[in-house]
Amino acid sequence: MGSRSSHAARIPDVDSIRRETGFSQASLLRLYHRFRALDWNEKGYLSRVDLQQIGALAVNPLGDRIIDSFFPDGSLHLDFPGFVRVLARFRPVDDEDNGNRDPKEPEPLNSRMNKLRFAFQLYDLDRDGKISRQEMLQVLRLMVGVQVTEEQLESIADRTVQEADEDGDGAVSFLEFAKSLEKMNIEQKMSIRILK
Amino acid sequence: MQPLLTACEVQGAWSDSAGPQWATLRMERGAKEKNHQLYKPYTNGIIAKDPTSLEEEIKEIRRSGSSKALDNTLEFELSDIFYFCRKGVETIMDDEVTKRFSAEELESWNLLSRTNYNFQYISLRLTVLWGLGVLIRYCFLLPLRIALAFTGISLLVVGTTVVGYLPNGRFKEFLSKHVHLMCYRICVRALTAIITYHDRKNRPRNGGICVANHTSPIDVIILASDGYYAMVGQVHGGLMGVIQRAMVKACPHVWFERSEVKDRHLVAKRLTEHVQDKSKLPILIFPEGTCINNTSVMMFKKGSFEIGATVYPVAIKYDPQFGDAFWNSSKYGMVTYLLRMMTSWAIVCSVWYLPPMTREAEEDAVQFANRVKSAIARQGGLVDLLWDGGLKREKVKDTFKEEQQKLYSKMIVGNHEDRSRS
After folding, report:
1. pLDDT given at position A172
2. What is the β-pairing status of strands A171-173 and A130-132?
3. A1 inside 8 A of chain B by CB
4. Which of B7, B298, B357, B368 is most buried, by the most CB atoms less than 10 A from its CB?
5. CA distances to B33, B171, B339 from B260, in Å
6. What are φ and ψ of residue B72, in 5° steps?
7. What is the mean pLDDT of residues B23-40?
8. Structural domain span for residue B137
9. Distance CA A184, CA B75 (A)
10. Which of B24-33, B161-170, B267-276 has the lowest mean pLDDT?
C-alpha cells in the first residue's frame, strides 16, 4: 500500500528550486503532486507522450509547440526541476520581486522579459533568435488549421513581419518583438495564479 | 451477520461524534507547533481560471496592447499567441480529466494510511489510534468479511447451477431471481456497504435499460441487491468466468466474447433482442466504459442509447469518508482492490433512481446520452464533463482541435475579406 506522503522533504533539492523559481512551498507541493499525477507509470520523469495525453492540451492548436518548450535541446526526459522551471515563467509578478531585487542576481524567471522570451520561442522554431517569415507562416498555419488559404496566410505573415521589423532584415528579432509589445500588459496576460 | 451489524452501528456513532474531524485537528495543531505548512487538498482545482471565450480573451489582449483606435479591421496580431500559450500551460498545471482517475482527496483524514498526505505530523496519540484501527480492520473485520464473501460467491455459483437444471418456467424465474438477490445481499454485507436507496418507485422494469455512472465493479453488486437485472459484459477467465457461466444458466444474461465486443452491430443486435423480450429482466449498463473516481461523470457511449428502449438512469454517489471505492485499474488488480475494500471502514453510498427517460423525436443518440448524463450528474452532485473517459488510453480526436482553429480563423480572416474588398 505505501504511504503517499508528499511532504516537501520528499521533493529533491526543494530549497534550491524554491530560490530559483520563487514558488512558495505550498505551490511547489501542488506542482509536485501534479507532476506525479501526470507521471502515471511512475518513471520519475515525464516524456512527451505523458503531456500529449492531456486532452485539453491536445486540442490546443499550439499544443505541440508548448510541449516542445518543456523539452529544450532535443532532450527526451523532463524531471521535476525542469518542469517547474518552465512553469515558473507564469508565476504572477508581485511587487516584492521587483522591490528587493539585487541587480547583480540573475533576472527572476517570471520577469516581463522572460515571459516575452517564452512566447517568442513559440514562434522561433529553429531557436536562432529571429522569427523569419517562414516560421511565422508555420505557426500561423498551426493556429488556423485548414480554414485559411495559403495566399491569405502569406499576406498576413508578410504584413506582420513588416510591421515589427525595424532593421529591415526580413525577420523579427527578440528586441523588435519586445518593442512591438511594449504597451501590452504581459504580466497579467501570461500569469497563472496557483490557489493556496 | 449479527456481529457485523453492531460493528456498523458503532462506526456510525463514531463518525457522528466528529471522529475524522478530530484526527485532522490534531494534525493541524501538530503542524502549527512545528511551524510547517500543512498540505490541504483543494478539490476545485489548483489554479485560478477565467471562464471567458476565445474571442473575448483575444480581443482583450489586443485592446490592452495597442494604442490604435479599435475599429473593425482587426487582423492577426503577434500577441494573439498569448491566449493559446496561457491556455495550454494552464492545462498542464491542472486539467479536468487527469484528476478524475486518481482517488478523490479527502478534506479530513479518516485514519486510513492510504488516504494520508501528511504522515509526519502524526502525534503519538494519533498513531496509537491508527494502530488500533489497523488491528480492528485487519484482524476482526477482514476475516469476517472474507468468510461472508466466500459464502456469497459459492452460494451464487452453486445456487444458479442448481436452478439451471430446472425446466424453463415461472418457478425457475422466481427461484433464480431470489437466489441472485440473496447472494448479492450477502456480498453487500461482506463489504459492509451501507446503502441508502432513494425514489425506489422509479426502479427499472422489464424491457428497459438501466444506466448508471461507474466507479468500481462493486456498483453492480450494489444495484443488483435491490432489484433484478440482467448483466451485460465481457466473458472473463478464472473465477469471474466461473461465476458468469453459472449465472447464465439460471437466467439470460448477455455475455460477449472478447472478439464480439468490437463488433458494434452485433452488440446492438443482441441488446435489442433482449430488450424486446418483455419477459427478460432489465439490462444493467455503465455507458462510461471505464471507472471514474466518483467526482464527475464523463461521456456516455451512445451505443446503449441507440436501441430505443426506455432508459432508467441511476446515480450512485459514494461517501469517501469511510473508504474509497474507486478502482484505479492501472494501479491495482482486482484482488488487491477487493482486499482494500474489505479493509476499509465501510462503503457508504447513496443510490438515486431517476424517473425513466425516452429518446425524443428530434434528438439523436448522442444528445439523448448527454441529457441522461446531465440528469445523473445533477442528482449525484457530480461534475458533468464532455470528455471521453477512454482518453486515458487513446488520443483525443482532431475534430476538437479543428473547432478551436475555426473559431480563431474567423477572427483573423473574416476581417481580412472586408479589407480586400475596400
Report:
1. 87
2. antiparallel
3. yes
4. B298
5. 61, 32, 32
6. -80, -5
7. 57
8. 124-392
9. 17
10. B24-33
Residues of A in contact with B403 (CB under 8 A): 59
Give the whole-angstrom CA distance, residue B83 versus residue B80: 6
Residue A21: name the closest of A67, A80, A100 by CA: A80
CB pairs under 8 A between A and B: 193
Dihedral Cα B269, B271, B276, B278, nearest 10 deg: 150
Cα separation of B44 and B148, whole Å?
39
Is the complex ipTM more than 0.90? no
Going by their DSSP bridges, the two strands B296-297 and B193-198 should be labelled as: unpaired
Closest CA to A138 of B161, A128, A126: A126
Asked if residue B413 is part of any domain, the answer here is no
pTM of the model: 0.72
Among the partner residues A51, A59, A152, nearest to B416 by beta-carbon distance: A152
B411 within a domain of the structure (yes/no): no
Is residue B236 in a domain?
yes
Q: Hey, which residues does B233 pair with through a beta bridge?
A: B255
Tell me which DSSP letter residue B387 carries. Answer: S
Nearest CA to B96 out of B57, B41, B44, B42 is that of B44
On whether residue B105 sits in a domain, the answer given is: no
Q: How far is CA A5 from CA A8, A29, B9, B34, in A?
A: 9, 11, 31, 18
Say how many domains are in chain B. 1
Instruction: Using CB atoms, pick whichever of B45, B67, B416 lies closest to residue A183.
Output: B67
